[in-house]
Amino acid sequence: MEIFGVDIGGSGIKGAPVDLERGDLAQERHKVLTPQPATPDGVAGCVVEVVRNFDWDGPVGVTFPGVVTGGTTRTAANMDKAWIGVDTAALLSRHLDGQPVTVLNDADAAGVAEMTYGAGRGRAGTVILLTLGTGIGSALFTDGHLVPNTELGHLELNGHDAETRASVKAKEDGELTWERWAHRVHKYLAHVEMLFSPDLFIIGGGVSRKPEKFLPLIQGIRAEIVPAELQNNAGIVGAAMAARNSLPH
Fold it and tell me: What are the residues whose beta carbons fall under 8 Å from the beta carbon of 42, sequence distance 6 or more?
């Protein structure tokens, strides 16, 4: 079964049809840059461009980098503040000429995909996926069950919003070496571990393609730390899973 997934990020919007038997993209993904400012109508236009690139007609799952409840976006840390309170599922469905749209938090989508097809498959206990990118997204699972919208990237760390210190954007903006950035990620993981005592950390986002650059530098965390197996496609896969789960049974 194929369903379309779209992953909205602070810097890029990417999507593809997903083969839900394999848990992988059915075709190579199409990506466009996130418009600046990232307003609802501007982003919706980009989502339409991504979906239309495949001549897709059917259900669409979409991730959003913020809290999402019942299809409505409640926060927008790295997007335009006009998103707050928008029924995003309805907005995107309108732009897509009535195609059914399901919207969920981006890290939750990536987490569900990793727990089903990737690094978290078959893992019990407490698992935390962290997506390191423009910000830091989080997905918290207990015995495979998702606790939605945790937003652990906004924990305070040394008086700062954690994602302003340990995200990939913070590494790039501060021109940090892998060693210096890994030191910050270590402090962040230690803080999250103190709060939740997870059995497993899964590190996702684009940086999961280069785990050898930083994971060996992170020592002293009790939990196992592994890179996301679906890497930066996890959000697209999880979005498609959410759209499938919203179909009438």
Answer: 35, 80
pLDDT in tens, 33-51: 999 999 999 999 999 999 9
Cα angle value 125/126/131 (rounded, 5°): 140
In the sheet that 224-227 helps form, which strands lie side by side, from edge to edge?
Answer: 145-147, 136-142, 126-132, 200-204, 224-227
Distance CA 188, CA 248 (A): 41
Dump pLDDT digits (tens) for 84-111. Answer: 999 999 999 999 999 999 999 999 999 9
Judge whether 238 and 118 are in contact, CB under 8 Å.
Answer: no
Whether the per-residue pLDDT at 249 is higher than 80: the answer is: no
Share of the chain above pLDDT 70, in %: 100
Give the residue among 139, 120, 113 at the shortest CA–CA distance from 226: 120
Indicate the burial class of 222 (C-beta count within 10 angstroms; 0-12, 13-18, 19 or more): exposed
Please name which of 71, 74, 99, 100 lies closest in space to residue 85, comparing C-alpha atoms: 74
Cis check: omega of the bond before 100, within 30 degrees of 0:
no
Distances in whole angstroms, Cα of residue 49 to Cα of each of 95, 171, 192: 10, 30, 38
Residues in the chain: 249
Render 76-118 in DSSP notation, one character per residue. -TTS-GGGTT-BHHHHHHHHTTT--EEEEEHHHHHHHHHHHHS
